[in-house]
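Worked Example 4.2. Consider the chain below.
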Amino acid sequence: MPTPDYAVIGGGIVGLTIARELAMRGGGVTVFEKEAHLGEHASGRNSGVLHAGFYYAPDSLKARLTARGNQLLRAFCAEHDVPVRSCGKVVVATSANQLPALDELHRRGTANGVRLETVDERGLADLEPLARTVDRAIWSPDTGVADPKAVTAALQADLLARGVQILTSTPVTAPPDAGHIVNAAGLYADRVAAWFGFCDDYVMMPFKGLYWYGNDRAPRLQRHVYPVPDPRNPFLGVHFTVTPGGGVKVGPTAIPALSREAYSWGFRGDEAREVATSFPAFLRGGHHDVPALIRAEVPKYSRRYLVRQARALVPTADGFTVRGKPGIRAQLMRKASGRLEMDFVVRGDERSTHVLNAVSPAWTASLAFAELVVDGMAERGAA
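Applying the procedure from the previous section yields the following structure tokens:
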């Protein structure tokens, strides 16, 4: 096999969109994926929500890339006949104490160039009759949803048409022979980066998320319904998501997983030890309200408790009995301080590029993020 200009490790949405951007700029690209199919981990297990970009601090990469990524992904889906449900989203307050944080979301969104509208309770009822709020809510018309598996399949076809070689069932255990290596290995990105001397100050802290899908008794929502998030933590709270087919799911949980691919109750001993070793720094760090996070998240492993919590947003919520496939968030943490990285993190040199933290909204931002990554490679003389 001839040596490619670029080897991309990881066949999730980030790896595939970077491979596409490299191919569009004229490079020869090979994608290495350890599973038999592309997008088997975070990319294929995420909610499929196309975020608008109003959660993020205006000086962050997430703020820069999410709104543009939303537009690019919609255009890609239209070009490849992948349906997008443009349902929009409402963010509601469950108490008056949350109103300052709700207003801060609106301020951030305005600074990020996102279309938002503050609506009163009557305006919310017009948009989503089943949702409830205290005094006011935020309406985001540019939030939507698409099927991640369908997007991944369309990307695969697009890459093959551009001459990209895709090697599935091909675990990478050492640096492959290539002109430049792009590490988009998701949950194992820190370990791949260590081969090249990057990521010594970070460790991956996996968080497990689980959704429950509604049966025939579940409310038929017209919009995504989200709570006001806790700004100290990188999670958006339990919410209702309209699926691409018009169903509804509720979740997710967000609790550290015992290992990086612990989708069931099993775990790998070495990874469980790593989590156990890293967790005290997270607990002591003071950057996040970890005790409150634990108190809030652990009970959500009970389906009934999770649904009761969600009724603060939609009082008629019931019938969520179908367990979804768990997903695991590849969350980067600073070893010394226990601080979870809230923004995208990319490192690299002339030999390699490493996507170390590509958590939500990376799926939405992926095409714009790929532009950023490849632009950075070009600045280093690697693309």
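Residues 122 and 136 are 9 Å apart (CA to CA). The two ends are 21 Å apart (CA to CA). Compare this with Example 4.1 before moving on.
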